Amino acid sequence: MILSSDDLLKIIHDTKAVSIWNHKTGPVFWYAAAVPGPFYVNTELAIGSALAEKLLRDITAIIAATSDPAARAARLNEAILTAYDANPVYQQIVKTMVAAAKASFPDGSYALVSGGERRDWLFSIPFAREAGVPHAFLFKNQDLWCATPIAPHATTLHVADLINNAASYFDLWLPILEKAHLRCIGTVCLNSRGSNGLQRLAKANVKVVALNGIDLSFFEKSRAGGLIDADTLAEIAAYFASPQEWAKRYLIGNAKLFDAPHIDAKSFERLRSFFTNDPWSLKKDNEAFFAAMRTAIEERARTA
Fold first, then answer.
1. Which of the residues 8, 40, 211, 217 has the least number of beta carbons within 10 Å of its own beta carbon?
2. What is the pLDDT of residues 225-277, one digit of tens each?
3. Where are the beta strands (DSSP E) in the chain?
4. Are 237 and 218 in contact (CB under 8 A)?
5. According to the model, what pLDDT value does residue 1 have?
6. Is the CA virtual torsion 131, 164, 9, 211 positive or negative?
7. Is 139 exposed, middle or buried (0-12, 13-18, 19+ CB in 10 A)?
């Protein structure tokens, strides 16, 4: 079954592929840019959180334990495709991605599918099988491996879980393909977030097909479908209008929403960067709160 946009919306919420924080209790989410936000995207969870977490652990273990490229690819294929064949929702998601590709790229326009280490493989490996083309593994060490000999200057379609700022495309995947004399004609992903990555790829002549965009319209549709309440939509709309004003309204002045003593180490480093560097210029009007947060951060650092 090919998923409708409403079907996909419900799956994304039900699996927490998009998580929305509770602004009454916290803690807030932290993004890679060391700024906070009210929602977080973990696209791989759409196939089921337990399954996604298990497969990512399996992928990590296989890469660590298997140096021979052919054996490594065989083990990765077996782990992912066995899970795929046993999970109807997983199959529906990938088949919907394949259908979107068929509607956007002419038949025969790509000779293989590529996917990047690690999360892309959850989607690119079964996508390649459904599309009936070879799969090229792209590794973070800049290796490429495909079980089928690749013709010079062949075209590839890159399949990904998420496009955010497209850093992995420009830092890794596109240079790897170029080095192998392959041409990427486009990319298909389950989720996109923001416009920056989409614009960068468009300028590089890489056509993007995303099943879903995590933008204000996504949350408006979620509200219309009864998946979030009106207060949640109002807060997220405030965030999209101005992250700084959202922070002033929903965060500043309430230290418990940051939970400096207990958040995970990565989030703590982002929190510390935020209150040290003040990227949103909030300190001037909130000196006492910034001082209190710096004290909490120093206490956490001492006891870590």
1. 217
2. 999 999 999 999 999 999 999 999 999 999 999 999 999 999 999 999 999 99
3. 18-20, 29-30, 36-37, 39-41, 112-116, 135-138, 144-146, 155-163, 183-193, 207-214
4. no
5. 85
6. negative
7. middle
* Tokens matching residue 36: 């906070």
| Domain hosting residue 18, numbered range | 5-41+218-303
State the pTM of this model.
0.95
Q: Are residues 55 and 190 in the same domain?
A: yes
28 plus 60 within the same structural domain: no
Domain count, the chain: 2
DSSP string of 94-147, one letter each residue: HHHHHHHHHHHS-TTS-SEEEEETTHHHHHHHHHHHHHTS-EEEE-TTS-EEES
Q: Which two tokens stand for residue 238?
A: 């405030």
- The last residue of one of the domains, among 196, 214, 232, is 214
Q: Are 124 and 115 in contact (CB under 8 A)?
A: yes
Rounded to whole angstroms, how far apart are CA atoms 135 and 245?
45
Same-domain status, 64 and 203: yes
The rounded mean pLDDT for the chain is 97
Which residues touch 220 (CB under 8 Å, ≥6 apart)? 233
CA–CA gap between residue 170 and residue 184 (Å, rounded): 12
121 and 237 housed in the same domain: no
User: How far, in Å, CA of 285 to CA of 111, rounded?
Assistant: 57
Contact partners, residue 5, CB within 8 Å, separation at least 6: 212, 221
| Whether residues 89 and 166 fall in one domain | yes
Question: Residues, the chain, total?
Answer: 304
What does 17-45 look like in DSSP terms, one character per residue? SEEE--TTT-PPEE-TTS-EESEEE-GGG
70 CB-near residues (< 8 Å, 6+ apart): 145, 147
CATH of the domain at 67: 3.40.50.2020
Q: Looking at the structure, do residues 132 and 259 belong to the same domain, yes or no?
A: no
Regarding whether 241 and 139 lie in a shared domain, the answer is no
